[in-house]
Amino acid sequence: MKDLKKKILYSREIIDRRVKELADAISHDLEGKEVVLIGVLNGAFIFLADLARCLKVSHSVDFTRLASYGSGLVSSGNITVTKDIETDIEDKEVVIVEDIIDTGITMAFLRERLEKRRPASIRICTLIDKKDRREITIDAAYVGFDLDEGFVVGYGLDFDEKFRCLPDIYVIEE
Ligand code: IMP
Ligand code: MG
């Protein structure tokens, strides 16, 4: 494992710039509204921390954690909530903050679950979007980077709980 080969895909400078742009777009769209950011643990914790500090709209922050049984690299579709949010989101503008959308199964599950609590709106903000791999239709309003292929780590993203705290994003080489 320690000699797993990886190469840099997005540098910290590029990530910083893109996170600021996403924050500007969210701040523009939700100006004057009651905003709740919901981070999906563990992958989104670094992204959310940076995004939240660039936002110009006032907002609160909460987290949820989901588990999906399977190989660990792809969603199995069997999702359970291991940590729920603690905020009342009724009539609030919700922004789900996710690290990466792959098949879309996780986001579709979370979105449907949160919709039942009658928020004013739900938007998805994902750092990385693997659109070509979708198995369920789900669209993110805010996308940091579109990725066609590859498994990425760093900046919160892990491979078997490793590499989360690398400041740049790397793609694992076969
Ligand atoms: P989905 O339900 O297939 O969309 O799965 C999304 C989840 O799979 C993400 O939140 C990640 O935890 C994980 N995932 C998918 N692709 C990658 C990757 O390239 N690197 C790290 N985690 C990934
Ligand atoms: Mg995740």
User: Can you give the helix content as a percent range?
Assistant: 10-25%
CATH class equals Alpha Beta
Strand order of the largest sheet: 4-3-2-5-6-7
Query: Which series of helices and strands comes N to C?
Result: EHEHEEEHEEEE
- Tell me which CATH architecture applies here: 3-Layer(aba) Sandwich
Radius of gyration: 16 Å
| Percentage of β-strand residues | 25-35%
Query: Into how many domains do the coordinates divide?
Result: 1
Could you tell me the CATH topology label. Rossmann fold
Shape: globular
Low-confidence stretches: none
The number of distinct helices, counting runs of at least 4 residues, comes to 3
Associated small molecules: inosinic acid, magnesium ion
Tell me the number of strands. Answer: 9
Mean of pLDDT: 94
Main beta sheet strand tally, sense and closure: 6 strands, mixed
Secondary structure elements and their pairing?
Elements: E1 6-10, H1 12-29, E2 35-41, H2 45-54, E3 59-68, E4 79-83, E5 93-101, H3 105-115, E6 121-129, E7 142-146, E8 152-153, E9 169-172
Parallel strand pairs: 2-3, 2-5, 5-6, 6-7
Antiparallel strand pairs: 1-9, 3-4, 8-9
Helix pairs in contact: 1-2
Keyphrases for this structure?
174 residues, alpha/beta, Rossmann fold, three-stranded antiparallel β-sheet, 3 helices, 32% strand, globular, binds magnesium ion
Describe this structure in words.
The two termini are 12 Å apart. The chain has 174 residues and is an alpha/beta fold. The protein has a single domain (12-148), classed as Rossmann fold (3-Layer(aba) Sandwich), CATH 3.40.50.2020. It is globular, with a radius of gyration of 16 Å. 22% of the residues lie in helices and 32% in strands. Bound molecules: inosinic acid and magnesium ion.
